[in-house]
Design brief:
Elements lengths: L9 H28 L12 H5 L5 H8 L7 H4 L7 H4 L5 H12 L15 H6 L7 H5 L17 E6 L9 E4 L2 E4 L3 E9 L3 E5 L5 E12 L6 E5 L2 E6 L4 E5 L16 E5 L2 E6 L2 E6 L3 E5 L2 E4 L3 E6 L4 E3 L2 E4 L3 E6 L4 E3 L9 E4 L3 E6 L4 E3 L2 E13 L4 E3 L2 E13 L4 E3 L1 E13 L4 E3 L2 H8 L128 E13 L4 E3 L2 E4 L3 E5 L9 E3 L3 E3 L3 E6 L15 E10 L4 E6 L4 E6 L4 E7 L9 E4 L3 E5 L10 E2 L2
Parallel strand pairs: 1-4, 3-5, 4-6, 5-7, 6-8, 6-9, 7-10, 8-11, 9-12, 10-13, 11-14, 12-15, 13-16, 14-17, 15-18, 16-19, 17-20, 18-21, 19-22, 20-23, 21-23, 22-24, 23-25, 24-26, 25-27, 26-28, 27-29, 28-30, 29-31, 29-32, 30-33, 31-34, 32-35
Antiparallel strand pairs: 2-3, 35-39, 36-39, 37-38, 37-40, 40-41, 41-42
Length: 719
């Protein structure tokens, strides 16, 4: 589903902007408090980076951008940051200054054309966007992940944890069951702390190597293992060992300014996890593993359970190996730095990763990169999502459950095997502003914790911090679910008639604008994205009777209208299968296919199609098969260099049907087996030749088709 940025008027944009200026001022106090405390966050909920997001500040630039018809140059793109987060920093200045800064941005590139919101030519739009051809090309623009040199094993210190009886030394301090390593070096750690904490705290430069060999640490008031101050830390899981860490359900901090550590395993420095043993981490209060810098996982078996995010890093999260079994009520794998150029990325190059997350399985604020490994994801929200670029060029990616499978501004599939199941779009290339326009509900800003929402003043997070109640002072006009002028007011038969009010009680998608409620059954779309009378003007107002012809022609048709600048979907290789109840492959910008094999089993509901591209889907190589029941599919560009054929069957073909494609001379081209009920079938391959007539035939119907020519209702019944 697409919502064009040009549909937002300049007047409405300014109204929303002014309504949020007061929240900018409020956030400034939080930012100053964080600076005074020497901490990146004030609380888990009032994180400096999360407060602007929770209060809608991250949307300020997008509101202005949408109001002026997307005429401004993408400032963040030059800095390799997907959003203009620098604007949030201006929150530390007076609100009036903030307003002038944002309004100044709104005038960039608008000297001619005013705020008319004239759609840009998709070709020129994509030309200004750098689309990486591979994961390595994208990584070249990101921060380099840290590396460490192996220590001298002959100087290893033995550390046996034994509650308050743990022996102290010149490099180990003991205070009850709080055991602190005070110098970098190599340590072999074993034993138990029944209600304590292992801490690494050293002012000396160097790497702290901890070989964990059967440790069991629980803490009733905070974190279990904390890397507080050291250049870098490495946790090596001894072969055959099982190591267990669990934190408190409610954290107790010494004062209101102290908000960290805030994960069962927490590191303020670069952290590496490797080895051949097992590490079990339970985050009872929130995140299980949290790193304020970079986190690299090289090996070991990680069994992680979290009340919020399973594994969170700030600068980058890299998985090169190991077996990860993650269960989270929040996100699975996550990188959060949206301020520094080249940071905030997730890179997976190896390992076996299983994620069962109530929200996103893999989330990055910059790049989400899959260059190897085997991923098996079950997600309440998106499978893999980023705010900038998402690239897959190797490995196996199976998304067994998701709201949207892949979501980012730029999506590149260059290799690997992908199997995506989604209750909405399988692949969705869209900007943050369009995601906000689709999903935003006034006053429903998500909190940084899944436990509470900002609409509950005075509520506390799991870590004990008070949640700010920063709500809009003015409700924007044109709410989700409202019927645009000129659209039918009746809701199609069988469709919901109301949009729920209020906010979901569980945490929503942390991209600006929130996301789907996480308690909906698989296959059901959130009420704020269901049709409420705003169907396309040429769509039927009621579903046909069962068994009647459901062909309605191809949707779209006006390729290029409303295509978003900077948004692109590129498929150059790989083996991709999509099973979607929303659009199968959807780009709010351009779409290009030069190679690979793509099979799209599209929706069986109205309002979506197997292919939906705002610009055009230009195909020059590979093999594409797409089918759906809705009749809303958009075939590839009629000027595509690789030929394609499309058939509209008079009545729906049942799931399991075979469609045989034959050339006029009787040569068999291919046989398409339908995974779902369908009326529309599209096929493109190198064997399809211009000037040749083809027949697409099922057991009961046949359609005569000509390459690069869409058809409507020309099926012939046969027995």
């Amino acid at each position: 589903m697409k919502v064009s940025a040009q549909s937002v008027s300049f007047r409405d944009g300014l109204r929303r902007l002014v309504a949020r200026v007061t929240r900018v001022t409020r956030a400034s106090h939080v930012a100053r408090a964080a600076s005074d405390a020497g901490s990146a966050r004030v609380t888990r909920v009032t994180d400096v980076t999360r407060v602007p997001r929770a209060a809608g500040l991250a949307r300020v630039t997008r509101v202005v951008r949408a109001a002026r018809g997307a005429c401004v140059t993408r400032v963040a793109r030059a800095a390799r940051v997907s959003r203009v987060t620098r604007v949030a920093r201006a929150a530390r200045r007076p609100g009036a200054a903030m307003l002038s800064v944002v309004l100044g941005l709104s005038l960039v590139g608008c000297a001619s054309g005013g705020f008319q919101g004239t759609p840009q030519d998709p070709a020129s739009s994509s030309a200004s966007v750098k689309v990486p051809a591979s994961v390595q090309e994208a990584l070249a623009e990101d921060l380099s992940a840290h590396t460490v040199t192996a220590p001298d094993s002959s100087e290893t210190v033995e550390l046996k944890l034994d509650g308050d009886k743990t022996a102290a030394s010149d490099v180990v301090q003991v205070d009850g069951q709080i055991v602190t390593i005070t110098k970098p070096g190599s340590y072999h750690v074993s034993g138990t702390l029944t209600d304590g904490q292992l801490v690494v705290d050293s002012k000396a430069e160097g790497v702290a190597w901890l070989e964990l060999d059967g440790i069991d640490i629980a803490n009733s008031t905070g974190s279990a293992l904390v890397v507080k101050n050291v250049e870098s830390a490495v946790l090596t899981l001894a072969s055959g060992s099982t190591n267990t860490l669990s934190d408190a359900t409610t954290y107790v901090f010494p004062d209101e300014k102290t908000t960290e550590p805030d994960a069962a395993l927490f590191s303020s420095s670069d952290l590496t996890i490797t080895g051949a043993g097992t590490l079990k981490v339970t985050g009872n209060a929130g995140d299980a593993i949290g790193a304020k810098d970079g986190l690299v996982i090289e090996g070991g078996t990680l069994d992680v359970t979290a009340a919020d995010d399973a594994i969170r890093a700030r600068d980058y999260l890299v998985v090169n190996g190991g077996a990860l079994n993650l269960t989270a009520k929040g996100d699975g794998l996550k990188a959060t730095n949206d301020e520094d150029a080249g940071a905030g990325y997730v890179y997976i190059s190896g390992g076996e990763i299983k994620v069962d997350a109530k929200t996103d399985c893999v989330q990055a604020v910059s790049d989400a990169l899959v260059g190897g490994g085997a991923l098996n994801l079950m997600c309440g929200d998106d499978g893999v999502t980023s705010d900038a670029r998402l690239v897959v060029d190797a490995g196996t990616l199976t998304i067994g459950q998701s709201y949207e499978g892949l979501e980012s501004e730029i999506i590149v599939v260059a290799g690997g095997t992908l199997n995506i199941t989604s209750s909405d779009d399988g692949i969705n290339a869209s900007s943050s502003q369009s995601s906000t326009a689709e999903q935003e509900q006034p006053g429903a800003y998500p909190s940084a914790s899944g436990d509470v929402t900002p609409t509950q003043p005075g509520a506390t997070s799991a870590a004990g911090g008070e949640v700010s109640s920063a709500q809009p002072d003015v409700v924007p006009t044109g709410q989700p679910g409202e019927v645009p002028a000129g659209q039918p007011s009746a809701v199609p038969t069988g469709q919901p008639t109301a949009v729920p009010t209020g906010v979901p009680t569980e945490r929503t998608h942390s991209r600006p604008g929130g996301g789907r409620p996480t308690d909906l059954p698989v296959g059901e779309r959130p009420a704020d994205e269901r049709p409420t009378g705003a169907w396309p003007t040429d769509a039927p107002t009621a579903m046909p009777d069962e068994g009647a012809g459901r062909g309605g022609g191809f949707g779209g048709g006006a390729g290029g209208e409303g295509a978003e600048e900077g948004v692109a979907l590129v498929i150059s290789g790989g083996d991709l299968t999509v099973n979607a109840e929303g659009d199968g492959i959807d780009s709010n910008g351009t779409g290009t296919m030069t190679g690979g094999k793509v099979v799209v089993n599209g929706p069986v509901s109205m309002g979506n199609g197997s292919i939906d591209v705002a610009g055009t889907l230009d195909i020059s190589g590979g093999e594409l098969t797409a089918s759906d029941l809705s009749g809303m599919a958009e075939p590839p560009s009629e000027s595509a260099s690789q030929q394609w054929i499309a058939a509209q069957f008079e009545t729906a073909l049942p799931a399991g049907s075979e469609v045989v494609v034959t050339a006029a001379d009787g040569t068999g081209l291919t046989t398409i087996k339908l995974a779902k009920e369908a009326t529309t079938v599209i096929y493109s391959g190198k064997e399809v030749k211009s000037g040749t007539t083809y027949t697409m035939k099922s057991d009961t119907q046949s359609v005569s088709v000509t390459p690069n020519q869409p058809l409507t209702g020309s099926a012939t019944r046969h027995r």
